[in-house]
Amino acid sequence: MFVDISTYVGHWPFRNLKYNTLEGLDKLAQEHDITHMVVSNLNGFFYKDANAANLELLEELKNYKGKTEFIPFAIVNPSYVEWEKDARDMVAAGFKGFELAPIYHGYSLAPEMLFDEYMPKHRALQVMNLAEELGVPVRICSSFENFRGRSPRDSYDNVTGDQLYALLSKNMNVPVFVTSFSPLAGGEKFTALIKERKNTYFDPTSFEVFNSKAAEAILNVIDQDQLCYGSLSPFNYMEPTLLRIAYAPEFDYEAIKTNGAKAFKSL
Amino acid sequence: MDIKEKVKLLSETEVVSWHEHVSGILRDRGAPGDRLNVAHCDAQMEVLDTLGIDKIVVSKPLSADKHASPEKCIVANNIVYEATKRYPGRIFGQAFVNPGFIRETLNELDRCVKELGFIGVKLYHQYFMDDPAQFAMIEKCIELDIPILMHCAHIMDPATRKRQPRCSDGFHMANAAKRYPEATFIMGHIGGGGDWKWAIKAIADCPNVYADIGGSVFDRPLIEESVALLGADRLLFATDGMWSSGVGKLLGADISDEDKKTIFSSKAFNKFLKKAGK
Predict the structure, then answer these.
(1) Does A148 contact B245 at a Cβ distance shorter than 8 Å?
(2) What is the pLDDT of residues A53-68, one digit of tens each?
(3) For residue A15, what are the β-bridge partners?
(4) What integer is the mean pLDDT of B121-129?
(5) Which residues are registered as beta bridge partners of A178?
(6) Is A116 exposed, middle or buried (0-12, 13-18, 19+ CB in 10 A)?
(7) Which of A49, A141, B48, B273 is the 20 to 30 A CA-CA neighbour of A167?
(8) Is B111 helix (H, G, I), strand (E, B) or coil?
(9) What structural domains does chain A harbor?
(10) What are the pLDDT digits (tens) for B142-178?
């Protein structure tokens, strides 16, 4: 078993992507001996109604005939009307987790001052609490492209350690995949939190391990079990992240390949 | 295929990286190092051996110093020289200069090439590549027959632009290359942040501008599009210290193994190594 916790289908408005279908991802998976991929539909980051993208992915899954086993995550926008009903429906339809996109859906992972009385003050937490109730994990991707090269129509912000702390500290029970984010980059409070919150998982897309003490430093902050393989495909080539887990002597290559699956079993 | 199998491709050619760095031990706050950081240098060589990289071309630019003085440049270049002596035949030097001090720059280039055996020049963002302040330095590089590596990025975010207001991109490289078609330019680290597509499109019709693939960014399809626009012969292997990104993006690209080997070996620049007798 070899699990990639960070893959996507769909379009990115700022750059053409290749392999951005289930068939495309399956081709990449076959080439790299990957057996399972956690997948969401990027279109949901940009649709007003994110759930429409979940329905698209559901349709794509019905027609998919490849070998790789996909683990679909529904994109949930807690600032959109009837989001909770949609989220429940998607889990009932077979989605295995939720994905949050705070930067693209325009809300914070922290509590907010809102003028609309009917809006919950900590919207992301509502999703976490629903995930706990339904027994599914949550995925949050910090960034999809390096901020220095983004389109002026994109945001230059990434999801930060402070934001993650504000959410993850309020619900310690839901497993969370924090992707494209170095465990060393979250600041003191976040670092202290993830030492305790063992159900927070990371991937190797955001740190170099050669010629630095990064791998050692990372294992001072998280357990080996909290490091999963994730490639951020189809945005990235897979080989750099594979090199990181295969060649850093501090990392257990074979274990990291399957840690994504262990995270699901812990539910 | 397992990644360890893929890495074996590097053993099929002589792998040469044209954009790496060495560091110095700081003498005091804010001053450049007065000697080579040997531990860092040795650690780099272990990485080279692990991944199968044969040779690296290194510099020590004063990246945070807008007004890099000639004295500091000399210290930095002496550190590079120390690295080339520690690993002869594996580490090659590039001279870092600030062309704003033109007389000293020309003297330093003579010293670095003729006395220290350096094979290139490395520039940072003290001036744009097409700034007239660079012209005499470029002419000196033509005379010495060495390539000019410029730190480049087409930066999009305002904060980085503010920090690096004179950071060159493909546009500046193309301007300089058209003015000096007999010079050889390297557009540094197309994976170093910034809009890499913008950068490669800007130099596509300038055959004397090469691009190195270094930097932390490993966006798919950076390599495929670079090969399509420039050809594998105009791409140089590099990591800029981001070893897994540099090696991995090339291993993962949908191009032929022959093209990968052309880039890994930085084939077009073998002549500069040969000239140095290595």
Answers:
(1) no
(2) 999 999 999 999 999 9
(3) A12
(4) 96
(5) A140, A202
(6) exposed
(7) A49
(8) helix
(9) 3-265 (3.20.20.140)
(10) 999 999 999 999 999 999 999 999 999 999 999 999 9
